[in-house]
Every structure is written in C-alpha cells, then in structure tokens.
C-alpha cells in the first residue's frame, strides 16, 4: 500500500502581492506560492497543495495577522461561493491590481512597445451590476472544509434540493444561496421562491452526476429598461409540472415580461443548440445603450443571445471603443466577432458603413433585427468565418476596411485571423478583449505591421479578477 504523503505546512507566511487570475502570492525560499483567500499584507499559516520545484499552490489554515487593507465582505456566502472573491479588498485596491495585471500581461506576453496606459475606468456601481445571472439546481449542497473542520451544523442537511452556483472543483454540487449581490431584486426572491415551491410540491431537482431529476437551471435577465426575462431549464417535458411552476412564477412575480422554458436532456448544461419555448410574453427582452453624444440604441436579447452583462459599464466600454476608432463619417468599419451587432450599431452614426461578421448565424439574424429597429441602413451583417469571407471579391462588393474592431472570446483570435488582419492592413484596429493574456499574444503577432497607440483598461466585474481592455493599433508608416 502506497504511503500517503505528509502535508506540507508553512507558518507565518507573508502575502506580498497579487498575480494573474486574482491569486495572491508569497515567496518562501525563492519559491512562488499562490495562496487562496488572502490579500497582500496578510500573515498566514498555509498548507501546500500542488507543489512544484519553483512554485506551489496553497490555502490558508490560520490567519496570524490581517492586512491593514482588509475590509469586511458584504455577502454572507463570501469564502464559500467563489463568485466575488475580492470582497475583502477595497475597490480602489482592486482597480490598482487590475491595472497592474494588464501591464504585466502586455509586457510579459506581448513584448511590444507600449504607450503609457490610461487609468483604468472603474464601475460606479460595484454591487447588483449584472443584468444576467444563471443559477444551478442540484440535489447536492457544497459544504466548505471550514464548516466541516468546525463541525458546523447544517440545517439544510435533509433538504432534497438546492439552488446557487457550482462549487469550485465540484461539478455536481452547488453553493446554496439565500442571497446574492450580483443582480437587483427580484432575483433572490425568484430563486428562493422556485426552490420553496418545488420542494413543497416534490418536483425533483436535477442530479448531474446520475442524470436524474427535472429542475436544472434558472436564468434571470433584468435590464435597465425594466424588462425581466426568465428562462427555466428542465430535463424533460412534463406539462403538469411546467404549468404548475411557471404559473406560480407569473402569479408571484407579475413584473416578469417574458417567461420561457428550455428542455435540456443532454449530459451537460449548455443550451446553445437548444430551442427555448415561450410560455408568456414576447420571447425576448429589450435593452438600451447610450453614447456620450446622447444617441440611444435599443437591442433585442433572446434567451441565448450574448450581451454585455454589465449594461452601464458596457456603455463605457463601447464609448471608449468608438473614441479609439477615430471615426469622422467617411470610414468603412469592419466589426469582427460582431455577435448581435451591439458595437457596430453603437458606432454606426459616425461611420460611412458597418460590415459585421460573426460565425453564429442566429446572432447575425439578431444583428439584422437590431439594425432595423434602430433605423440603421448603413450596417450590413454576414454569417461566416472572417478568414473565408474577407477575400478580394468581398472587398470589391463592400469596400476594404478603414477601421477594424475586433472583440474575440477569451481565447483570443485564431492565428489565421491575425495573419488575415496583417494581410488586410487596415489603417486602424481597435482590439477589445476580456482576457489581456491572449490579447497580448495577438498583439505580439500584429506587431509585424502595427504599433500600439492607446491602451485603456475597463472594470466590468467588480470584486472579481476579470478585466476588460481596449487597445488601439495603427499601421506602421515605414
């Protein structure tokens, strides 16, 4: 029998800084240690988990002293739910570390000449800022190691169902929430009411490990227009349970403007390939974004549509993007990864023409509807891969781009697309990114023809390590 390794415990370790992905770091005998749930200035006893020659991961066993910068977390679930893991850090400090994170990524991975970064734009609202939250139902509740160590009594031990967020590292368990500060009410009221109703009526919660049960997920989208769209995801069709639960929700929450349900019998939670069924309302919600000049644009958002989840900071992000594009009404703008057309529509008044390209056909259909709703005639949207679409024949039809706006997913742009941008050689590129690390990698490739002329970080998600970054690039003159 293999002998179990004795855990490595280090005492009186000083946390000195933050690293990528929001992890705090300490250095012990030259080794970098990434420590969960700590901030710079904390002194802790830690236990090592993954332990390599030059680095290790650890979690705190005991706090010997707390950093002077610590503040009291505002959520009762902090430390168990990983959704807002920087609550103990003052917001201004969060912004400082996020700004530094952008600098570190661009310098470490990009290796390109950089202008002085503009100061990060923080959020005016650091709680209840999300317009979309997705909850998971489960038959299993996550209980923290701290509660287990303290023999904490779990009053929900015999409960048959729970609702909240997936626990980190436990795909089948959820952190059961009584409150969440990510979205305005009635989000907590709706989630808790659904749990109570289903428990009372013996509606089975889903067990993702054994693929049994009925109630899977709940998506709540609450927009600045007042629209409230709910999507209830269930495992199979049962008319009595559907009518029972959805009828109860409409009775209890008359502010719901659209109520849909989605049947997901798959082994995973993705609904991108499924068709939501409208039970009440118009089947979509409407949001609006306003430019610095006062122009307001409206957008239809379906149950599966991507839209910026922080509306007010989304306006900030798009206004910066528009400013970086330096539009004067004469340019043809290519909006790559255009989704439902949100950025292209937002900048359309200052452009001669907008060409939006997106690989997901349904998103392009939404983009065309959104352009029509806003009476925009100079925006045209095409479904397909940029690498295939943007050829000489396409440019002859629609014109070569004067400005390219690209807003890729977290993985960044495919190298083939970067090479295509180098081939197109538009005079100006605006690169919007939700992952400065992959953005830096792409900037290193674009450096063959482009110089970085402006960099503007934007905080979209307070109390998390996530950061958005906008970069302006201009074609080199030599």
What does this structure look like?
The chain has 478 residues and is α/β, with parallel strands linked by helices. The chain folds into 3 domains: 9-70, OB fold (Dihydrolipoamide Acetyltransferase, E2P); 95-126 and 289-475, Rossmann fold, CATH 3.40.50.150; 132-286, OB fold (Dihydrolipoamide Acetyltransferase, E2P) (Beta Barrel), CATH 2.40.50. It has helices spanning 91-110, 145-149, 187-200, 239-252, 311-325, 342-347, 361-373, 386-389, 392-398, 415-424, 436-446, and strands at 9-14, 17-18, 24-28, 31-35, 43-51, 55-65, 132-138, 162-167, 170-176, 215-222, 228-234, 258-263, 277-280, 285-290, 296-301, 332-336, 353-358, 379-383, 403-406, 428-433, 450-458, 468-475. The strands form 4 sheets. Strands 9-8-7-10-11-12-13 form a 7-stranded mixed sheet. A 7-stranded mixed sheet has the order 18-17-16-19-20-22-21, with helices on both faces. A 6-stranded mixed sheet has the order 1-5-6-4-3-2, with no helix packed on it. A hairpin with a 5-residue loop joins β14 (285-290) and β15. α1 (91-110) runs parallel beside α11 (436-446). It starts with 8 loop residues before the first strand and ends with a strand.
